Amino acid sequence: MCEILEPGEHYKIKDPVATWEKIGGYSDVKERLEEMVSLPLKHPDAFDRAGMSPGNGILMWGPPKTGFNAFAEAAANSAGASYISASSAELIKDTHYITHLFEEAVNLAPCIVYIGEVDILAPRREAESTLIPGPKEVGSTDATRLLFAEVDKISDRWDIKIIGGTNRPDVMDPALLRNGRLDRKVYIPVPDFDDRMEILEMSLNSTPLASDVSIEKLAELTKNYASADLISLSRTVTLEAIREKGDKFDKVEMKHFETGMKKIPSSLTPETIGKYMEIYKEECKHRYMY
């Protein structure tokens, strides 16, 4: 007998508040998601008249801490759609949760469903990731089959989009990436120099900075930082200055950033970033992961 769940017990139903404007940098990623997700949901008749099939499923992939959930939520906001965020680690606890998730998406349509760490639900079971090595819990074959069945069930609907996120594209089951499933791919890289400039400017927007602080210099010093690292750094340096100055706090100085970068180093190594870029370059030749 199917367990009766309260809505959102094993996933989050959210009124999407993230917007493209609140996400620093990544103009190419925003444009691709707008084309893949937001425009088809806002203008389904136009796509139909143009004979274009936008697809229902997207795989967002890339290094950790690059903001998959925020991108998916901003796409939902842009489309004026409902938004559900789910964790694969929660969904594998009982296959009924997968069924409930998709039933909720149908009830809330137009709706965007984001499933984090989707590789847990649909792994290549003999594979071990070279990107993020080490053991990781994976779902049962029943969970994988049910996920495929539920995605197939809504494949002819224009008003539901499924977005899966993964940091381990090298262990994804290719069956989930076939046509009609998560067949559109968006690579979310670590932010480049211009992206880091914009993220730092936004996260430090309300922070008083001393004259010796240069956003451009900070962007140079934070190469290989993920977007989440940059946001954490901005908060850490402000606390560092308050801790030092107390009630006399007036501005954050460059010395606080130097201390902050020791406490909040990049969570990614150049070697790891290089491996992601190798996959991106190789798979782009076949239009597989792009």
Fill in the keyword field for this structure.
single chain; 290 residues; alpha/beta; Rossmann fold; Helicase, Ruva Protein, domain 3; 2 domains; 6-stranded mixed β-sheet; 45% helix; 11% strand; globular
Short description:
The chain is an alpha/beta fold.
CATH level-four homologous superfamily name of the largest domain:
P-loop containing nucleotide triphosphate hydrolases
CATH architecture assignment name of the largest domain: 3-Layer(aba) Sandwich
CATH T-level topology of the largest domain: Rossmann fold
Overall average pLDDT? 91
CATH class of the largest domain: Alpha Beta
> What pattern of helices and strands is seen along the backbone?
EHHEHEHHEHHEEHHHHH
Number of strands: 6
Uncertain regions: pLDDT < 50 for 5+ in a row?
1-5
Contiguous helical run count: 12
| CA-CA gap between termini | 41 Å
Overall description:
The protein has 290 residues and is an alpha/beta fold. It has helices at 27-42, 44-49, 68-79, 88-91, 95-108, 118-121, 141-153, 193-203, 215-221, 227-245, 254-263, 270-284, and strands spanning 11-14, 57-61, 82-87, 111-116, 160-166, 184-187. It has a 6-stranded mixed β-sheet, sandwiched between helices. The longest helix is centred in the C-terminal third of the chain and has 19 residues, at 227-245. Residues 1-5 have low confidence and may be disordered.
